[in-house]
Write a structure and sequence with these properties.
With about 800 residues, this protein is mainly β. The protein has two domains: about 110 residues, Immunoglobulin-like (Sandwich), CATH 2.60.40.10; about 650 residues, TonB-dependent receptor, beta-barrel domain (Maltoporin, Chain A, Beta Barrel), CATH 2.40.170. About 5% of the residues lie in helices and about 65% in strands. The strands form six sheets. It has a 22-stranded antiparallel beta barrel. A hairpin with a 3-residue loop joins strand 18 and strand 19. The longest helix is centred in the N-terminal third of the chain and has 20 residues. It is globular.
Length: about 800
């Protein structure tokens, strides 16, 4: 316990030291408190600071209904408040600086009739707030009918590779959360979860490139937080959405959102049922070389992988407002996914001259069953107007089952016929608890302290059998039983402070990690176990200089970690095809990173950013020859050295004319990867990602044209990705007296979103080209009933960190 106590003392001393040297805020700040008709705080209301009817600054209210405008240039201003489902309000004129430094705005509902609610302004699909980018999923017409992974793929700064790996702003290693809870999944399991979720389930996605100490330190590239739909409006209300899409195969998604709030009780229920058919085809040309570099053989393979997925998701819960100061609540959710797929492949061995030598037909049938359940209990209590406490407890479980059948047949006289099968069940259990205490020292300064502990238990069996004649025999060389237990304990503290035109935050997080892993032996493989314990301090902070009413500069720094997920520590073989296996690496160490970012924001029009990061013990896919068979390639993860990433980005949000709005981002990365895989290997690359969203308002119609393009890119030492991109269009129109909405969307219009690349192995290379069922036309219908629909944030879960910085508008 000594390191734990020492870290706590370090956190408190650092924060107290900063508080001693900081001073009070000046009078150029202004606070707007926004309340609803019941005098409750209106969270996520939009407040615009206007001068001469022109918008100067925009802020969004926090969970206390406060919007904070900093270092306002002297002048005469008004504030305009908009909130979904409520009438727009404009304040009286205020002189700044002046005696009045705050005001309260009480909103009135637009109407209890949905027919009149539609006058509320549309939410922009992409918003930039300090420290994060917020994607309003429903505000983008071209998100219709997509999975969550497909929404991420077209989001600014996000890139998804052929294995479903996600990178943010050119950096891999992202912590993915759902409703502020870590998923605790990676690789294929995370891919399956995100592709089973429909965009109709999601209200917002937060892209947080530089999280503060309130967040888990995991995820060197930052955090992606997927927030599912829930509203908090009084009375009974809800929406029903159904969508049908047709690509090469059909796709259907359906969503029901219900909410009932009366008196001190608010209840909610979300239900989604989706059925999707999909496909993937892969062409690969592998070349083998001798130690002198001479070509010895070629392996040419085409694979076709059709499949289908059927899933149900249910989320329900209740909040009880015991008093204006105290709220308790619970949430329960569950997901079931049934995914069936097959892989038909034709593989040909060729001589160095390209002459066919032999041909092999392979078949792989796969049945995957995924079940997930979560329970959250939460309590929030305000001791006074300046201090409050949140306590959360969570329990999550995953039950994952995969049944696979492999068949290989040599197409030749006296050719062989091989048949094998695998049963791979995985159980994951996670319990976590968290407490967050916030103390507002004055109008601008705040101190936050917190604690979190999580316990994870996993049990993973991989049982393989081969058919010998008519008898199935256990393949002990591949069969494996892996048990893994991990615990993480954390303390953190943050201090927000303002000094004239300068505001900032200093944070420090301490995390202690310990795990024990046990690989059970069998008749061929010996029993083995390994364990590790380590502690780390993770400082973070930001400094903002408000030069004037339209220009601000922000410097952000943080230290973060990526712990290897248990799937990557498990040293068993997973069969991809006859000549490609994957395996875990029990010697994999955490990768650590330092991240720095300097940004300039001009009004809401232009944001420019320069960033630099350095990662040590860098995770990379590495490819090895299988023992006793050079034709089989093993791919695994390894610590290959370090990587350096210099990034430059510019984001433009503008409206050239009243009916046309544009959000465009260009992100440039210069990356250098230094590793060791049999010999020293250093590579560097310049890559560019461009993302554009155009929205057009034409009478009752809303049209959208979006697209992204990525040049050559590299996330792994040995794999180069070729350029890719897509263009999507959509059209939306209200119907049924504006209670309903029809949307028509065409995704990847020119079928250009392929995944193509080149991989360097030891004594081998491979070119690959992968196509998916990405060109899809989707028609959706949404019907809303009851009062106006609005999505709001629940209290943060114990399995994550508070989403908002205290004291910032």
């Amino acid at each position: 316990m000594m390191p734990f106590k020492t870290a706590a003392c370090c956190i408190l001393l650092s924060l107290c030291a900063l508080n001693t040297f900081c001073q009070q805020a000046n009078s150029h700040d202004f606070f707007i408190a926004v309340l609803n008709e019941s005098a409750q705080p209106a969270e996520a209301a939009t407040v615009k600071l206007q001068k001469d009817n022109a918008t100067v600054l925009t802020a969004v209210t926090d969970n206390k209904g406060l919007a904070h405008f900093k270092a306002i240039k002297a002048g005469t201003y008004t504030f305009v408040v908009t909130y979904t489902g409520y009438q727009q309000q404009t304040t009286p004129t205020y002189q700044i600086p002046g005696k009045i430094t705050s005001a309260t705005v009480t909103l009135q509902p637009a109407s209890t009739s949905l027919n009149e609610v539609s006058v509320v302004a549309r939410t922009p699909p992409i918003q930039h707030q300090q420290g994060k980018v917020i994607l309003d999923v429903g505000a983008s017409v071209t998100n219709t009918g997509l999975t969550v992974l497909e929404v991420l793929e077209k989001s600014p700064g996000v890139m998804v590779d052929k294995n479903g790996g996600i990178s943010l702003n050119g950096k891999p290693g992202v912590l993915v959360m759902i409703d502020s809870k870590p998923t605790y999944l990676s690789g294929a399991d995370l891919n399956n979860l995100l592709t089973s979720m429909s965009s109709t389930q999601v209200a917002q996605i937060e892209l947080i490139a530089n999280p503060t100490a309130r967040y888990d330190a995991n995820g060197n590239a930052g955090i992606i937080n997927i927030k599912t739909k829930k509203n908090n409006i009084k009375g009974f209300n809800g929406s029903l959405t159904t969508a049908f899409g047709q690509g090469i195969y059909p796709k259907n998604t359906n969503s029901l959102v219900l909410n009932y709030r009366v008196g001190k009780v608010n209840t909610f229920l979300n239900y989604n049922v989706n059925y999707v058919e999909y496909m993937m085809d892969i062409y690969a040309l592998r070349k083998y070389y001798d130690p002198n570099g001479a070509l010895t053989a070629m392996f040419d393979q085409y694979s076709y992988l059709p499949g289908n997925s059927f899933n149900n998701t249910l989320k329900t819960g209740m909040d009880y407002f015991i008093s204006p100061k105290t709220t308790i609540g619970f949430a329960i959710s569950g997901t079931t996914v049934k995914r069936n797929s097959s892989n038909r492949a034709n593989a040909n061995w060729l001589s160095p001259q390209g002459v066919p030598d032999s041909a092999i037909n392979t078949t792989n049938e796969s049945r995957n069953r995924f079940k997930n359940g979560t329970i959250n209990l939460n309590l929030r209590h305000g001791f006074s107007a300046s201090q409050d406490l949140e306590v959360n407890a969570d329990y999550l479980h995953y039950d994952i089952k995969a049944d696979q059948t492999f068949e290989n047949q040599l197409v030749a006289a006296n050719g062989y016929h091989e048949l094998s099968r695998g049963n791979i069940p995985t159980g994951i259990r996670i319990a976590s608890a968290k407490a967050d205490y916030t103390l507002k020292l004055n109008k601008t300064d705040a101190l936050a302290l917190g604690w979190k502990s999580s316990l994870t238990n996993t049990d993973n069996l991989a049982a393989y059998e081969n058919l010998n004649g008519s008898v199935w025999e256990v393949d002990n060389a591949k069969t494996n039983h892996f048990i893994y237990k991990e615990n993480i304990h954390a303390l953190y503290g943050t201090l927000d402070k303002k000094m004239g035109k300068v505001s900032g935050q200093l944070g420090l997080r301490y995390e202690h990690t310990g795990y024990n892993a046990h690989q059970l032996g069998n008749a061929v493989q010996p029993d083995s176990s390994f364990s590790r314990k380590y502690s780390q301090l993770f400082p973070s902070g930001y400094l903002t200089y408000q030069a004037d009413s339209v220009n601000s500069f922000t410097l952000t720094a943080s230290r973060r970690i990526d712990r290897p997920p248990f799937q990557l520590l498990n040293p068993f073989y997973a069969i991809i095809n006859k000549y490609t296996y994957s395996t875990g690496n029990p010697y994999l160490l955490p990768q650590l990173s330092w991240n720095f970012e300097l940004s300039h924001q001009y009004k809401e029009l232009l944001t420019t950013t320069a960033s630099y990061s350095r990662i040590t013990n860098y995770f990379s896919q590495i490819f090895l020859s299988a023992p006793n068979d050079d034709a089989i390639l093993l791919y695994t993860q390894g610590n290959v050295g370090s990587t350096y990433n210099l990034g430059l980005s510019a984001t433009l949000v503008t409206s050239p004319v009243k009916w046309w709005s544009v959000t465009a981002q260009a992100l440039y990365n210069h990356k250098q990867l230094r590793g060791f895989n049999g010999n020293s290997f250093t590579t560097e690359i310049d890559q560019l990602n461009v993302n554009v969203n155009n929205q057009f308002t034409i009478g009752k119609y809303t049209a959208e044209l979006t697209g992204f393009y990525t040049t050559k890119a590299r996330n792994d030492v040995q794999e180069l990705l070729y350029p890719t991109g897509q263009v999507s269009v959509g059209l939306s129109r209200p119907i049924f007296g504006k209670k309903g909405t029809l949307r028509l969307n065409a995704r990847d219009l020119f079928f250009t979103n392929a995944m193509e690349g080149f991989t360097s192995f030891p004594n081998a290379t491979e070119y690959f080209l992968l196509h998916r069922d990405t060109r899809v036309v989707t028609l959706s219908f949404t019907y809303r009933f009851g009062k106006s629909y609005k999505t709001t944030k629940r209290a943060a879960s114990s399995a994550t960190d508070e989403m908002e910085r205290v004291g910032n508008g």
